[in-house]
Amino acid sequence: MDALEGIRTRRSIRKYQTGKVSEDLITELLSCAMFAPSAFDKQPWQFLVLNKKEIFDDILKAAPHAEMIKDASHAIIICGDKKFQENAGLLIQDISAATENLLLTAHSLGLGAVWVGIYPFDEIVEGIKKLFNMPENIVPVSMAVIGYPAEKPEQPERYKQDRIHLNKW
Question: What is the pLDDT of residues 2-18, one digit of tens each?
Answer without folding.
Answer: 999 999 999 999 999 99
